[in-house]
Amino acid sequence: MKLITRNTDYAMRALCYLAQRREFSASATELVRELRIPRPFLRKLLQKLGGEGILRSTKGQGGGFTLARSPETVRLTDLIRIFQGGIQLNECIFKKRVCPNRGTCPLKREIDAIERSALQQLSKVSIASLIKKKRPQDRLDNKIQRASFKKRRSL
Amino acid sequence: MKLITRNTDYAMRALCYLAQRREFSASATELVRELRIPRPFLRKLLQKLGGEGILRSTKGQGGGFTLARSPETVRLTDLIRIFQGGIQLNECIFKKRVCPNRGTCPLKREIDAIERSALQQLSKVSIASLIKKKRPQDRLDNKIQRASFKKRRSL
DNA sequence: ACAAATGACACTAAAACGGTATCATTACGC
DNA sequence: GCGTAATGATACCGTTTTAGTGTCATTTGT
C-alpha cells in the first residue's frame, strides 16, 4: 500500500531540479543524466506534465522544459492527482451498494476524516517547500546559473 | 490510489458483524447472506483471518466463526497489514539509490511524517470503535441473542 | 450415512504499475 | 537545405496486485 508511486516521485524530483534552474530550460537528456531516471519513462512523464500545464516545453535543438507555474503553486497533491488518478482512499462499499449498514457505516466517516487530514498535509508539500529545505552541500543552483550564462553546454 | 482495499473493507464488515454476535458463531453462509459479499471471496478472507489469529473457527455442521480477540484489540491497521502487506507509503528513491539528492531528499521526511500521522489515526479505528457508533435502528444484536439462545454452542 | 460446515490451494481475469519503442514534427545552426 | 537535437503522440510489453472462482478434502452434528 503506497501513497506515492514512482511516477509521482520522479515527477517531484524532476520538477525540483527544474525549479532550481529557474527560467533556464533543461532537456530530457539533461534530466536523465542528473536524476538517473529511465529515459523513455521520464519523457512520457514530462509530456504529461506539459499537457497538464505544469511544464512549458520548447521543441527543436536547444529546447527543453521549464516550469510553467511558480514552485509554490505546484503541490504534491497535484502530482498525485495527475499520476494516480486522484485521491480516494475509500471506494467500494460506500459507492454503489450504499453500505448495507449492520453497524459498519461509521467506517466511511472515519476513513474520510483520515483522508482529509492526510490530503491537507500532502497539499502543503510543494516544489517550493522542498527545494527550500535542501542541504547546504547541494549547492547546485549557483553552479547552474554560472554555467548557463554562457549557455551551450554540449555534454 | 486507495488506502483501503476490498479485502480489508469486507473483513471489517464481517468482523463487525461477528462482534455483534458476541460468542455466537456465524457461518460463511450467514455472512454472505447478511453482507452481500461474494461467497468464495469471503471464505478465503475468513480463512486468512483464522490463520492470523483474529477469528476462531469450528468445522462441521453448526460450525462457523467467532472473534478470537476482543473487538478493542482488532484495529484497522491490523487488517491493512494482513491484506495489504503492511504500510509503507514511500518506497522507491529512499531505499536503494539512497536518494541522489539534488534537493529532493526532504520529500522522504515529509512523506514519512504524513505516513506516521495517518497510521496513528488508522490504528485508532477498531472493530469496537466502529460498532459503538452504530445507529439506533441497527438493533441487530438483540435479535441475534434471542434467536441464538436455544442454539447451544460448544467449543 | 448425510448434510453442513471449514481447510487447503490452485486457478483466472482485469487493472495498475513500471518501462520500452517507434515514428512524426519542430527548430537551431551550419 | 540538411543534419541533428529536441519534443509530441501513441502503442506496446511484462510484472505485480487486486478481485474473484473452483475443487477437493476433512470435520462434525443429527
How would you explain this protein's 3D organization?
Two copies of one chain form a homodimer. Chain A contains seven helices and two strands. In chain A, α1 (6-21) packs across α4 (76-84) and α2 (28-35) packs across α3 (39-51). The first copy, chain A, is mostly helical and 155 residues long. Residues 92-104 and 135-155 of chain A have low confidence and may be disordered. Helix content of chain A is 52%, strand content 5%. At the A-B interface, α1, α4, α5 and α6 of A face α1, α4, α5 and α6 of B. Chain A binds a DNA duplex (30 and 30 nucleotides) through residues 5-7, 27-29, 38-41, 43-44, 46-47, 50-51, 57-65, 84-85.
List keywords for this structure.
homodimer, 52% helix, DNA-binding, two-stranded antiparallel sheet, 7 helices, 2 strands, disordered C terminus, mainly alpha, 155 residues
Helix content of chain A: 40-55%
Shape label of chain A: elongated
Terminal-residue CA separation of chain A: 40 Å
Oligomer: homodimer
* Total beta strands of chain A: 2
Tally of helical segments of chain A: 7
**From N to C, what is the helix and strand string of chain A?**
HHHEEHHHH
**pLDDT average of chain A, as an integer?**
78
In terms of per-residue confidence, which ranges of chain A show pLDDT below 50 for 5 or more consecutive residues?
92-104, 135-155
The biggest sheet of chain A, with number of strands, parallel, antiparallel or mixed sense and barrel status, is: 2 strands, antiparallel
Largest interface: A-B, 55 and 54 residues
* Global Rg of chain A: 19 Å
Percent strand of chain A equals 5-15%
Going by helix content, strand content and strand pairing, the class of chain A is mainly alpha
User: How are strands sequenced across the largest beta sheet of chain A?
Assistant: 1-2
